[in-house]
Amino acid sequence: MVHDALHITELLRAEGIQPSAQRVAVARYVLFTDDHPTADQVWSEVRRDFPVISRATVYNTLNLFAEKGLLQSHSFDDGAGVFDANTEPHHHFIDEETGRIVDIPIDRLRVSGIHELEGLDVDDVRVVLRGRLKDGPR
Amino acid sequence: MVHDALHITELLRAEGIQPSAQRVAVARYVLFTDDHPTADQVWSEVRRDFPVISRATVYNTLNLFAEKGLLQSHSFDDGAGVFDANTEPHHHFIDEETGRIVDIPIDRLRVSGIHELEGLDVDDVRVVLRGRLKDGPR
DNA sequence: ATCGGTGCAAATTATTTGCATGAAT
DNA sequence: ATTCATGCAAATAATTTGCACCGAT
Fold first, then answer.
1. What are the structural domains of chain A?
2. Which nucleotide is nearest to B54 (CA to C1')?
3. Is B120–A110 a contact, with Cβ atoms under 8 angstroms apart?
């Protein structure tokens, strides 16, 4: 996984995003984690390396990235809204004890019965699983 | 569908909820609609009949009902959190144009592939469908 | 008089907006 | 000099907390 500023700069430019120092700092964390952080978690995390950045800028940057398709934002029945660097369509598993969210590739699950539903024109299917993560070998 | 105050009073008492005037007013609307209103929509709607009630009371009442199992609360990727009088486990369809949310009975869909996922102990499965509601005979 | 429960004002948290500043032409 | 983009202070929206009030004992 490459985290160098040059790489990130190019990545942002490729989306037409001006790579300001703040945006690079946010990108460096949020585009390369498989956590599913809330906006506030991003703010905390980013300030470790880049101490002077406001919450508003973090929110605006996350929204900008989401608009440009670098991030998805999700919101589940329990917690606050989270951001997800995985921009492919995918499903989610939520550990009910820890709150940890894990991505499930879209083709690992199949949903049947959709065609039998009347009056609905379905173009997107997402599954949310809940349960416990068995702590296996990491 | 019965909306009389007597009925509602009993319903609330059965859950150990003191049926104050405010709570009955909220219950009268939210427990008998198949809309999926936000807290603010509930507030607006309730004030038609019961003009003096604060937002805080509506929030607290909705949370109380949800704790007692009279309501579920949901939150989807787009909009704000909504409340749902359907307390059975179920799936959802969201009309991408209107935002309208429709419940899908749990047994109308089947999700396969869950057993093949390793390291996950799954005890709940929810599906969110998106698309368009074909306007059939209403 | 005291206690427990209620509703709401105020506080807190979450998010968006609008404007002062600085860079580019 | 003008324009345009940026980051943040302040505004707004969303939600929770804590306390004054009231009814029952």
1. 5-82 (1.10.10.10), 88-131 (3.30.1490)
2. C8
3. no
Bases on strand C under 7 Å from any protein CB: 5-10, 14-18
**Which nucleotide is closest to A73, CA to C1'?**
C15
Q: In what order do the strands lie in the sheet with A101-105?
A: A101-105, A90-95, A120-133, B120-133, B90-95, B101-105
Mean pLDDT over each residue of chain B, to the nearest integer: 93
Report yes or no: A58 and A43 within 8 Å, Cβ to Cβ.
yes
Residue of A92, A103, A120, A135 to mutate, interface with B, max B Cβ within 10 Å:
A120
Is nucleic acid strand C under 7 Å from B13's C-beta? no
* pLDDT, tens digit, 9 for 90 and up, residues A54-67: 999 999 999 999 99
**Which residues pair with residue B101 across a beta bridge?**
B94
Which alpha helices (H) appear in chain A, and where do they start and end?
Answer: 5-14, 21-30, 39-49, 55-67
